[in-house]
Amino acid sequence: MKKLRYLFFTFLIVMIGMTGVKADKAYNIDVTMKIDSNGNAHIEEKWDFRADDGTEIYKPIGELGNSKITNFKASMDGTEFTYESNWDIDASLSKKAYKNGINKTDDGIELCVGKTSYGRHVYTLSYDVSNVIYNVEDAQVLYWKFINDNMKNPPEKFTVKVYGPELFSNDLPVWGYGYTDGYAYVYDGVIEMESSENRNFKSSEYAVLLVKFNSGTFNTDNSWHKFSTWDDVYTLASTGSFKMTFWQKVAAIGSALFSIAIAALVIFAVARESKNNSYIKNKV
């Protein structure tokens, strides 16, 4: 019986250890993009986020093409942060409190925000992006990743709203890529993209918006050497649409099987111990 009790408590400790570890959690990320007549944009992101450990929240941004990010600002629960021109990723929680900055990486940049204090808060990130609209031979294009893949703490839900200098036509061609269940459409002159209310967004997913505008919609001569025609852009976007890779499938299945295996081993051990210690009536 001692062994049986030991196995039972070991099982409880393992399961508590698997589920009770503190971790950051992103509930929602709501993004608004406002594009001006010259094809530049202002972006604001509201992160409903619970911080349990670590010192900063960061948003990786990869290849920007001809675009540049400027005027990066942040706040927490309405309190404005101070921009640090030399962001130190190794600084302490207190050193990063009420501060934000940009960290340069080999893959691009990271927009960094000090967590400031643990608990659930609303963090707001805002920044300007030049040249979000670019020309191809037969169209003008918006092709922008709003939610990154492989986030350590992906949001359960996201919404994106894109405004133009004028109301967009409701039949404007728009596509959303990277997420398996959600929407991308134009409503009342605003482009909207969102994840489904019926399931949580996954870390293997992302959110890319592709929009095809008529040539001359925006007053810009910006172009990108990677694309010559609309078909070039559409082909790349479609090819890069959400598909879970083999190793992502292995990781997801492996995680589930690991939990099942632990439970099965404990049940087997308990059953075996019970059999070995079963009551046998002595003959007289």
Major sheet, described briefly? 8 strands, mixed
Question: What fraction of residues sit in β-strands?
Answer: 35-45%
Helix content percent band: 10-25%
Q: Kindly provide the radius of gyration, computed on alpha-carbon positions and rounded to a whole number of angstroms.
A: 25 Å
Description:
The chain has four helices and 16 strands. The protein has helices at 2-19, 93-96, 230-239, 246-276, and strands at 25-35, 41-51, 56-61, 69-76, 79-80, 82-84, 99-105, 108-114, 119-129, 133-136, 139-147, 155-163, 174-177, 182-187, 190-195, 207-213. Helix 1 (2-19) runs antiparallel to helix 4. The strands form three sheets. It has an eight-stranded mixed beta sheet with strand order 5-4-9-2-1-12-15-14, with no helix packed on it. The chain has a four-stranded mixed beta sheet with strand order 3-8-7-6. It has a four-stranded antiparallel beta sheet with strand order 10-11-16-13, with helices on one face. The chain has 284 residues and is of the alpha+beta class.
Care to give the gist of this entry?
Helices cover 22% and strands 39% of the residues. It is of the alpha+beta class. It has an eight-stranded mixed beta sheet with strand order 5-4-9-2-1-12-15-14, with no helix packed on it. A four-stranded mixed beta sheet has the order 3-8-7-6. Strands 10-11-16-13 form a four-stranded antiparallel beta sheet, covered by helices on one side.
Which helices and strands, and how do they pair?
Blueprint: H1 2-19, E1 25-35, E2 41-51, E3 56-61, E4 69-76, E5 79-80, E6 82-84, H2 93-96, E7 99-105, E8 108-114, E9 119-129, E10 133-136, E11 139-147, E12 155-163, E13 174-177, E14 182-187, E15 190-195, E16 207-213, H3 230-239, H4 246-276
Parallel strand pairs: 1-12, 6-7
Antiparallel strand pairs: 1-2, 2-9, 3-8, 4-5, 4-9, 7-8, 10-11, 11-16, 12-15, 13-16, 14-15
